[in-house]
Amino acid sequence: MTRKCWMLALYLTLAIALTGCLPPAHQGGLLPGDENMYWLTDGFDFPVGDPDGGGWDITGYRFLQWSAYSNSYHPGEDWNIPGAGNGDQGKPVYAVANGEVVFSGWNTALGNIVLIKHAISPTEFVWSQYAHLDQRYVDKGERVYRRQPIGTVGRGPNDTFAAHLHFEMRKVDLPANAWPRTNGAAWDASRVTDFWLEPSLFINQNRPQ
Ligand SMILES: [Zn+2]
User: What are the tens digits of pLDDT across the range 155-201?
Assistant: First the structure.
């Protein structure tokens, strides 16, 4: 091997070794400290009660239960303190995982809504949506951590409902007020699952280590 070739081989080896040890600088701005970095999740907890949802249950509409109220399949879970009536109004609602608030605002059908985007890997995302809130504690663009209180349980617009948390998990980027209907016609259940996840199932499968 000539000296020139040997130097080239050494240079290539060094370059591979060095870049192999460095963070991926050009994969969507993932360097620590980069303003565009997505904050990866470290697992998912339940949105009410203790991290396991203790003290609360889905006593309202379950995932994909037919909702006579909305004349469609229910794309989330309605969480309550069993037997509390409106006694759960004002109780804290927690971010289920680290993420970034992508919507925090009012909707005439769902009341106060917070929608959070979660990076489960640098390229894979899910969204959690919290509706009928009494108060919202976070704004669009804020980063939130798992178990951070992001609002309180409410009753929806004009106290339409008995107090409960309407909670959704989505695998597609949908508007905060998305609902599985088109021109008033309900989507079938299998189409709903193209866009929405079963919240409790997903959380139970992705608990913090
Ligand atoms: Zn609901």
Answer: 999 999 999 999 999 999 999 999 999 999 999 999 999 999 999 99
Question: Do 5 and 81 belong together in one domain?
Answer: no
Ligand 1 centroid to 68 CA: how many Å? 11
- Continuous segment of H or E residues that includes residue 151: strand 149-152
The DSSP bridge pattern shows strands 181-182 and 92-94 to be unpaired
Query: Same structural domain for residues 82 and 13?
Result: no
Distance 91 CA to ligand 1 centre (A): 17
Cα(143) to ligand 1 centroid in Å equals: 25
Helix (H), strand (E), coil (C) string for 132-146: EECCECCCCCCEECC
Same domain, 26 and 102: no
Residue 48 lies in a domain: no
Residue type, 57: D
List, for residues 63-87, the tens digit of each pLDDT value: 999 999 999 999 999 999 999 999 9
Q: Domain tally for the chain?
A: 2
3-class secondary-structure state, position 206:
coil
**Ligand 1 midpoint to CA 114 (Å):** 14
Residue 10 has pLDDT above 70, yes or no: no
**Distance (Å) from CA 160 to ligand 1 centroid:** 12
Which residues span the domain enclosing 28? 1-35
* 61 Cα: distance to centroid of ligand 1 (angstroms): 6
Task: Report how far ligand 1's centroid is from the alpha carbon of 85 (Å).
Answer: 15
Residue 46: strand, helix, or coil: coil
Q: How far is the CA of 99 from the centre of ligand 1 (A)?
A: 22
In a domain, 6, yes or no: yes
| Mean pLDDT of all residues belonging to the chain | 88
111 and 22: one domain?
no
